[in-house]
Inverse folding.
């Protein structure tokens, strides 16, 4: 990519849960467009592998372990970026997992675990990084889910967590106004490790219910994250964008 087209030249991007799937694809995308990326994951080895791959492709990347549910690990991550004298231009808050369980069967621990990973983590991440993002005039992109927009059987805690992100991006966009932009992407069915154990027949049925006729790829979501994170979206904040091949607007059964 030429310097003129490198939307993230001289910018630093911090990504969470980037050792796999959507976060991994987004790290590659931002680095390919010139960003210096900090690849984090609770799985330090996975984050290390992704950073190595980006460097092998000629990009700039470092990695570290970050469990997004730990305020202490957030503080240590911010301290490392500060010590490196780096600004923070882009934050991709991407952690989440759809633990199933109908509401009448869900125990307290499962409910709270789900909210801690998928929603509390967003609060911890924003709280820790606002000073760095403010200094840079940064952009935050959060990975939400189609579950924030429409109901699916068996995922009340996941829907509540991702739905909470929808309200939070609007709130944060208002609160930090012209200093930091906040947006969320709502992926539909995207083939990542989350889908590793789903039967082929289920995948085919989901693709058939999706107007564009296929499941999503991590790269489909990375493209939307990169758009929100870039100056191309400098007049867009507080938005929740469905990136789902049209699944959520189709009555197709
Ligand atoms: N794949 C889909 O169909 C889909 C659809 C909608 C939304 N999403 C959302 O996209 C995001 C990424 O999902 P994916 O499909 O790429 O998953 P993935 O399983 O490919 O990757 C998830 C990553 O999260 C990491 N992780 C787990 N707990 C963590 C923690 N406490 N701290 C830091 N990292 C942690 C894992 O180690 C793993 O590397 C999630 O928020 C998910 O809810 C995915």
């Amino acid at each position: 990519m030429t310097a003129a087209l490198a939307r993230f030249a001289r910018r630093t991007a911090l990504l969470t849960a980037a050792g796999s799937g959507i976060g991994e694809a987004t790290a590659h995308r931002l680095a390919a467009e010139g960003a210096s990326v900090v690849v984090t994951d609770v799985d330090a080895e996975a984050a290390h592998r992704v950073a190595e791959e980006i460097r092998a492709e000629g990009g700039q990347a470092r990695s570290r372990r970050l469990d997004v549910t730990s305020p202490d690990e957030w503080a240590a991550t911010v301290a490392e970026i500060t010590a490196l004298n780096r600004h923070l231009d882009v934050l991709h808050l991407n952690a989440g997992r759809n633990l199933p369980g109908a509401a009448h069967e869900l125990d307290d621990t499962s409910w709270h675990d789900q909210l801690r990973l998928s929603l509390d983590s967003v609060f911890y991440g924003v709280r820790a990084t606002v000073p760095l993002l403010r200094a840079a005039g940064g952009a935050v992109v959060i990975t939400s889910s189609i579950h924030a927009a429409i109901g699916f059987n068996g995922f009340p805690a996941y829907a509540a967590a991702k739905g909470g992100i929808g309200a939070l991006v609007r709130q944060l966009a208002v609160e930090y106004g012209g200093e930091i932009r906040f947006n969320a992407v709502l992926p539909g069915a995207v083939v990542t490790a989350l889908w590793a154990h789903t039967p082929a027949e289920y995948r085919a049925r989901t693709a058939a219910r999706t107007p564009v006729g296929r499941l999503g790829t991590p790269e489909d979501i990375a493209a939307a994250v990169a758009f929100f994170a870039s100056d191309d979206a400098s007049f867009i904040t507080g938005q929740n964008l469905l990136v789902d091949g049209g699944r959520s607007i189709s009555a197709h059964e």
About this structure: Residues 68 and 76 are 12 Å apart (CA to CA). The chain has a mean pLDDT of 95. The first strand starts at residue 12 and ends at 15.
